Amino acid sequence: MLRSTPVLQGLISGTGPGIVSSAIPINMLTSICALMWQLSSPTSTPDVQFQYAGSIDGINRASFTDVSALLTSTFSFGSPQGLHFLPLSLNVMNAPFLFIGCGGTGSNPVDTTLLNCWLLTRISIN
Fold it and tell me: What pLDDT does residue 30 have?
């Protein structure tokens, strides 16, 4: 069964680290299928990256730099504003929790807002 889980929203001001999700329990998931997001900026074109990190306890997480980014630049989707869908083929990691991070890259304007970000996941029903 597929499930859409909201994970992030908020202001991503300029470049560098932005916002980090709460711990997302993934021990009951079969796979993580896609990342969906919607960005907005009234003054310019948003450019952000999405990263992920595992966690054993749901509080302390590994570094986002320990693994490759999910997406290094939203410019690769043409017009980064609007609703976008990135298929993923992430198998569930050994850690029971996952964190998603979103930060500005390149010339990301200071008024960029991540309106919504969801993970599309597959769960097993026994």
Answer: 83
Whole-prediction pTM = 0.88
Alpha carbon distance 76, 11 (integer Å): 21
Count Cβ atoms below 10 Å from residue 13 Cβ, excluding itself.
Answer: 16
Helical (H) or strand (E) element with 113: strand 112-123
The closest of 100, 105, 97 to 88, measured between CA atoms, is: 100
Residue type, 117: C
Strand ranges across the sheet with 29-40: 2-12, 112-123, 29-40, 82-91
Domains of the chain by start residue, with CATH: 2-123 (2.60.120)
